[in-house]
Design goal:
Layout: H1 21-27, H2 39-53, H3 69-83, H4 87-90, H5 92-97, H6 101-107, E1 108-109, E2 117-118, E3 120-128, E4 134-143, H7 160-167
Antiparallel strand pairs: 1-2, 3-4
Helix pairs in contact: 2-3, 6-7
Amino acid sequence: VSSGIVLVAINPYEQLPIYEQDVIYAYSGQNMGDMDPHIFAVAEEAYKQMARDEKNQSIIVSGESGAGKTVSAKYAMRFFATVGGSASETNIEAKVLASSPIMEAIGNAKTTRNDNSSRFGKYIQIGFDKRYHIIGANMRTYLLEKSRVVFQAEDERNYHIFYQLCASSSLPEFKDLGLSK
């Protein structure tokens, strides 16, 4: 097993015009090193190697809380959806990453850096057909912070679901959940 390129990115905590459609097209088809380091360069390299070697590729997005991992994954998927010919047809990025409100309630919490921080890891698998067009995707999640259930650091909160349940305890539907005690 060999490792490919490594990209170190910094979350600017604001939207920058470096992730637009025209930037995707600028990186599409380029060789690594011909352009500035970018998440689109990493995605292009993986896409080209998948097509050339006909082997599965992986992109690992890692970092501390608030580093922008989820957003980086979205940008990579936007790149694949655009170069894979499915951006306008299926909006695969939105379908794959649109966490349901229930999943977000169970897996997200307020941290000192983010009021809605995902506290679970994600494994996203994107399927391509023989023409290298996206044909589907699935996302598996796993909780990383079980300790948050019984302890929270100062200025942080438990998972959203606990506060949502408390806030809705007076609703008639709540009685059916068997959680009144």
